[in-house]
Design brief:
The protein is of the alpha/beta class. The strands form 3 sheets. It has a 7-stranded mixed beta sheet, with helices on both faces. Strands 9-10-13-12 form a 4-stranded antiparallel beta sheet, covered by helices on one side. Strand 5, helix 6 and strand 6 form a beta-alpha-beta unit. Helix 3 packs across helix 4 and helix 9 runs parallel beside helix 11. The radius of gyration is 20 Å and the shape is globular. The protein starts with a strand and ends with a helix. This is histidinol-phosphate transaminase. Its cofactor is pyridoxal 5'-phosphate. Homodimer. InterPro entries: Aminotransferase_I/II_large (IPR004839), HisP_aminotrans (IPR005861), HistidinolP_aminotransfase (IPR050106), PyrdxlP-dep_Trfase (IPR015424), PyrdxlP-dep_Trfase_major (IPR015421), PyrdxlP-dep_Trfase_small (IPR015422). Belongs to the class-II pyridoxal-phosphate-dependent aminotransferase family. Histidinol-phosphate aminotransferase subfamily.
């Protein structure tokens, strides 16, 4: 048996209601989806209490990020700014779009250095991207910090807040309620995490209306398939599954944090569905722990790809998965 605790997926899997809807809709797979996915756009606008003209949906957040780089930045002229380390897709998409990505280091405790970030912004900066809660640290910025950042940017610069994990932090960490007073802010969200639909590739953004309009104009037709749209509609309507997921993650997050600390590990405080940690000084290294867990059938994320070779990230699993991970980790560390 292999237990995957590396990709921040929903530990409960797919909502039973979503599975039922997809089975019913499977016979419609030969049909093209309705252009512009109006049903999902309307549902998202209603769910968040925003104008439908602000909503853009795409084939995962990947498509949203890709189009923002292409629409907002002229290659060789404009630049984008983000923190380092950051979600690996930002540098990749910036490079594909021919846009310089400037990166400010996080503080030593992995909290956000907003003054440092602002030092990289100039009159040619058209995008500033902040992930909150952040990946891989799990730290979240306050609404006040994000609003202040938005207010300090040049008028032509768009602040994009990637809120892929926001449901695990809480609404009080989102700029959603302040969008009307912050005309240069866009929020990105996904159905991959709390909704358990990572394999369906459904991302969306809440944007200034003019930018949303541009994205719809250049988006590839039918990029969100008909089954994905039906799954998203069903997931959005399933509040019971969503709340159950959040409850499980918050409980598991506390358990993993407390237990790893009792083993002597350094654990960052997380407001997401994963924990970033490193092994105690003098104990086996992270490479050994990662390899030994893998040998026992548990996959967690080594963070060398984030240029953090001394750290690991573990996704919150089910109660059983968390217990097994902790038992094996304790055994390997000799704690």
């Amino acid at each position: 048996r292999v237990i995957k605790m590396a990709s921040n997926e929903n530990p409960l899997g797919v909502s039973p209601r979503v599975r039922e809807v997809m089975e019913k809709c499977a016979s419609q797979a030969f049909r093209y989806p309705q252009s512009g996915n109006p049903r999902l756009v309307k549902a998202l606008a209603s769910f968040y209490g925003v104008d439908a003209g602000r909503i853009f949906v795409g084939n995962g957040s990947d498509e949203v990020i890709d189009l923002l780089f292409r629409v907002r930045a002229v290659p060789g002229v404009h630049n984008a700014v983000a923190f380092r380390p950051c979600f690996g897709l930002y540098p990749t998409q910036a490079k594909m779009a021919g846009v310089e990505l400037r990166q400010a280091p996080l503080k030593s405790d992995f909290s956000f250095d907003f003054p440092g970030l602002l030092k990289l912004v100039d009159e040619n900066t058209t995008l500033v991207i902040v992930t909150s809660p952040d990946n891989p640290s799990g730290r979240a910025a306050s609404v006040e910090e994000l609003a202040a950042l938005a207010g300090a940017l040049p008028p032509a610069c768009l602040l994009v807040v990637d809120e892929a994990y926001i449901e695990f932090a809480g609404a009080e960490y989102s700029l959603l309620s302040r969008l009307e007073s912050l005309p240069n802010v866009a929020l990105m969200r996904t159905f991959s995490k709390v909704y358990g639909l990572a394999g369906m590739r459904i991302g969306y953004a809440i944007l200034p209306p003019a930018i949303a309009d541009y994205l719809w104009r250049v988006r590839l037709p039918f990029s969100l398939n008909i089954l994905a749209e039906e799954a998203a509609l069903a997931a959005l309507d399933d509040s019971e599954f969503r709340e159950k997921t959040i409850e499980l993650v918050k409980r598991g997050r506390v358990q993993l944090t407390e237990e790893l600390r009792t083993m002597g590990c350094e654990v960052l405080p997380s407001l997401s569905n994963f924990i970033m940690f490193r092994t105690p000084e003098g104990a086996v290294g992270v490479k050994t722990l990662h390899g030994e867990l893998l040998r026992r059938g548990i996959i967690i994320r080594a963070l060398g790809g984030y240029h953090l070779p001394d750290w690991l990230r573990v996704s919150v699993g089910t109660d059983e998965e968390n217990e097994l991970f902790l038992r094996y980790t304790r055994e390997i560390l000799g704690a």
